[in-house]
Amino acid sequence: MRAVCKGSFPRVRHSKTPYSVIGSVTHLVPQYILRYDLGDFSHYAHFSGASKTRPIYCVPMNEEQKKKVAKAFKLALRPIVKMLLRYGIGYSEFAEIVKTVFVDVGSSDYGIRGRPTNISRVAVMTGLTRKEVRRLRTKLESGDDSISVKSTPITEIIHRWHAEDEFLDEAGRPAVLPFNGDGLSFSELVRRFGGDVPPGAMRTELKRVGAVVEEADGELRVVRRTVIPEDDTENIVTGIVHAAYPLLSVLSHNSDPDRNDEGLAQYTAFSVNIDKKDMTRLRRICRDRLSDYAESFDDLFMAYESVNDTESRNYKGQTVAVGLYYFEERDKRVSYTW
């Protein structure tokens, strides 16, 4: 059984212990929509059925509708609050963050004829005082809220090793490279894309994290495509920016009644009836399949990158992402129905 992204989204594939695999396609410019066949999600025949939900249109909500939406956000906030507390961020700091975002979105998304929304309207929409809106706008204009996800020399080298044609073999896979040499070599790869990191230090670090294997003759073979940051802080920032934000952006876009397209693709394959004795095997299967999917999408994106002249004055890059992850419900205090 196969699922192809068509029509309005999200689409949910389901069977019957809340375990799920999520796949989503995110594009931040509505007029370009990517569709992919995400393939079979399970070995089991009962993992079947497809239901397609309609987009959620923004209409004035009665109190009962508000309660339903508020309860859904309360559920979604639980893992966020867990992470905030883990990093020593309390309610006061979080409230300041939330107020800042309310003012930012209210100012930028609800203006007239492309102009920012005035302070009074933002105050009415958000429930904040005009004084508070003015203070937060000044804070936003200072530009101290930007978020940066670091791309380390290691990740850049691994990416280029998979992406640059001259460092690929005849089958299109990353070539096994000598450390030095007159032709293409690992040292040449590092010299071009590794910044000021010496090739020897790069080789040592890639071997340490298990991304590269050194053969008996000294040649280097890349065996991993991704490296997980050791710094938990950087890891969580990357996860939020690259996973949580794109998924929530898809939901926001699909619920916008003024959007001018059919919606972005969002898939959820889940089961609420997996025997615990099967979990180890299921985790392994899902990990392997998601890894394969991620690499295939990475190949697709790199193919498009390779035909673009990024040095051109007219070149305009666009962010596109496909998110894949495996989920198991472990919070015994939550109550919801899939």
SSE arrangement:
Elements: E1 11-14, E2 19-27, E3 50-52, H1 63-86, H2 91-109, H3 119-126, H4 130-141, H5 153-163, H6 186-193, H7 199-208, E4 212-214, E5 220-222, H8 232-254, E6 266-271, H9 279-306, E7 320-328
Parallel strand pairs: 1-6
Antiparallel strand pairs: 1-3, 2-6, 2-7, 4-5
Can you summarize this structure?
The chain contains nine helices and seven strands. It is an alpha+beta fold.
Keywords:
disordered N terminus, Arc Repressor Mutant, subunit A, 338 residues, 7 strands, alpha+beta, globular, 9 helices
Describe this structure in words.
The chain has three domains: 1-58 and 240-338, no CATH class; 90-146; 153-222, Arc Repressor Mutant, subunit A. The chain has nine helices and seven strands. It has helices spanning 63-86, 91-109, 119-126, 130-141, 153-163, 186-193, 199-208, 232-254, 279-306; strands spanning 11-14, 19-27, 50-52, 212-214, 220-222, 266-271, 320-328. The protein has a five-stranded mixed β-sheet, with helices on both faces. A hairpin with a 5-residue loop joins strand 4 and strand 5 (220-222). The chain starts with 10 loop residues before the first strand and ends in a 10-residue tail after the last strand.
Radius of gyration from the alpha-carbon trace, in angstroms: 23 Å
Neighbour order of strands in the largest sheet: 3-1-6-2-7
- Please indicate the percent range of residues in DSSP E strands (runs of 2 or more): 5-15%
How many domains, in number, for the residues?
Answer: 3
Q: What does the average pLDDT come to?
A: 77
Number of helical elements: 9
Count every beta strand, where a strand is a DSSP E run of 2 or more residues: 7
Shape: globular
Main structural class: alpha+beta
Major β-sheet profile: 5 strands, mixed
Low-pLDDT stretches are: 1-59
| SSE string | EEEHHHHHHHEEHEHE
Q: How much helical structure, as a percent, in the residues?
A: 40-55%
- What distance lies between the first and last C-alpha atoms, to the nearest angstrom? 21 Å
